[in-house]
Amino acid sequence: MKLRLLPALAGAAVLALGLAACSTGADANTGDDESSSTSSGTFAVDENTLVFGVVPDSVDTETNYQPLMDYIADVTGKTVEYHESTDYAALIEAAIAYQIDVASFSGFTYVTATNNGAELTPISSIITEEGQEPGYFSQAIVPAGSDIDSIEDFKGKKVCFVDPSSTSGYLFPSYNLLEAGIDPEADITPVFAYKHDVSVQKTVRVSSARRASPRTARSRSRTPSR
After folding, report:
1. Which of 1, 36, 59, 87 is at a distance of 20 to 30 A from 163, taking alpha carbons?
2. 88, 116 Cβ separation under 8 angstroms
């Protein structure tokens, strides 16, 4: 199903990077009767329900997305079901298998999904303030008291990423490491937290053992959502 473009989402305070409408192979069967299209399996559940897929971003993921789901339900008149995947790869697989109708994708997961056969129609980027440029930041943090003061100091260290399919939690950090002359697979020991907040918590645990708070290393790259 190809969802029509929704009106502007001004001021939606949610943690999404992009919204995509998932379409199925049934769209290839053109016809004038919309009811025949819906009855031939173009929805993940049924024509009165939209399954909204997201990645496991944090413990507050569902709460953060609730305003957007309420908005979609109000605009479409359909019931919106929340579907949180186990990881980024699972959301990609769900899109390919037509198990979701609408999804919030980062740039990396969107490209991976479409490259593997998912039929997606981008319809908006979510912002938190009216007039804001779509995008987000990727930060590197280290325990307070660490001898790491820059990206170059990461070489030979254990580095916690979010997920191999995360744009801000792996793709761009890996790019920054390569720019610093560090191979993200050979020159560091990569580990994955699979949620953004958990990656911070793992660093905090190290800091707690030292009775100090984590600090930001000298690197902050802005990731465009486009």
Report:
1. 1
2. no
